[in-house]
Each structure stands twice: as C-alpha cells, then as structure tokens.
Amino acid sequence: MKSKAQTIEEYISSLPDDRAEQIAQVRKTILENLPDGYEETMNWGMITYQVPTSVYPDTYNKQPLLYAALASQKNHMAVYLSGIYTFEDRYTAFEAAYRATGKRLDMGKSCVRFRKIENLPLDLIGKTIASLPMTDFVEHVKKVQSPRKSRAK
Fold first, then answer.
1. How many helices (H) and strands (E) would you count in the chain?
2. Which DSSP symbol is given to 2?
3. pTM of the prediction?
4. In whole angstroms, what is the distance from residue 98 CA to residue 120 CA?
5. Between 2.30.30.240, 3.40.309.10, 3.90.1150.200, 3.30.230.10, what CATH number should domain 8-130 receive?
6. pLDDT given for residue 61 in this prediction
7. Cα three-residue angle 87-93-95, rounded to 5 degrees
8. What is each CA distance from 75 to 15, 30, 106, 125, in whole angstroms?
9. Strand, coil or helix: what is 13?
10. Which helix (H) or strand (E) holds 21?
11. Predicted local distance difference test score (pLDDT) of residue 46
12. H or E segment to which residue 40 belongs
C-alpha cells in the first residue's frame, strides 16, 4: 500500500487509529535513536530515514540512500532496516538478537513485519537504528558498490 501522503503527519493521520498509534510509537523509537545526519521524510510512499543526496549523490537510482523506513501495508506494518541489509554480520546478529527476545521474527530481506506493537522488540529496533552512524553506512555502501561500478565499465 503505497501512500500518496506528502508529509509524515498526513501519512500517520491517514491511517486507522490503531495503526496510527503503533506507527507513531515506532517512529518515536527510531527518532530517539537515529544517528546524526540522516533525514526523516516521505519517500517511496513510506516514512523514510535516508542519507541526503547532498552527502551521497552517487546512488544507482539518483534517489537518497535509504537507511530505514516505516510503513503500514495492507496486512501488516513494517520497519525496513536497509542499513543492516548489506552487512552480513549485522544482519545475522540482528536476527539472533530478535529471536532471543522470544518474539516471532517475520522478516524479508530488510523488512521486519509486525501486526501489533507488542510483537516488535522496540528496544532492539532502537539499538539497531543507533548502531550505524551515517558516515560508516556511506563508506560501506561505497565499498559494496565499487566492484559493481568496475564491472559496468
């Protein structure tokens, strides 16, 4: 369910009350833990936390580099943790830490799906968001993309 909302406030107010409350709570956790430099905005129909193009303009799609996102989908809500997706060790550690909470992990490549806030370990989401300063994330992306650029020439 891609939203056409232009602002975060418009996005949240367009949700059913129970979802709006839960999305707002997850958003609060993200904002309390978001490292300096990332910007919060609406992009791709979701609330996104991204590296501004003024900091890293060299993305494959010319869009800001996505660090994390938050969305209400048709059958669930989701936190997208794109920042850890390309770090195998961080990804594995996140999965293990999530399972250790005793909560059921429903995860795609970078999206953690949940139906109720009680099923989402907010402290782990906060720690995960806080764990990757923007400069480290950008440097990692540059390293990962470097071999791709070499092959494209």
1. 6, 5
2. -
3. 0.90
4. 9
5. 3.90.1150.200
6. 87
7. 100
8. 13, 22, 13, 21
9. helix
10. helix 17-33
11. 95
12. strand 39-43
User: Is the distance from CB of 105 to CB of 76 less than 8 angstroms?
Assistant: no
- DSSP code for 107: B
Residue among 87, 129, 121, 89 at smallest CA distance from 102:
121
pLDDT, position 1: 59
Q: Which amino acid is at 21?
A: E
- Tokens 């107010």 found at: 13
Query: Which residues, in sequence order, are CB contacts of 71 under 8 Å at separation 6+?
Result: 1, 3, 45, 46, 47, 77, 78, 80
- Domain spans, the chain: 8-130
Instruction: Supply 36's token pair.
Output: 């300096």
140: Cβ–Cβ under 8 A, 6 or more apart, which residues?
A: 86, 87
- Please identify which residue in the block is written with the tokens 């406030």: 9
- What is the chain's pLDDT, residue by residue, as a tens digit (153 residues)? 578 889 999 999 999 999 999 999 999 999 999 999 999 999 999 999 999 999 999 888 889 999 999 999 999 999 999 989 889 999 999 999 999 999 999 998 889 999 999 999 999 999 999 999 999 999 999 888 765 544 444
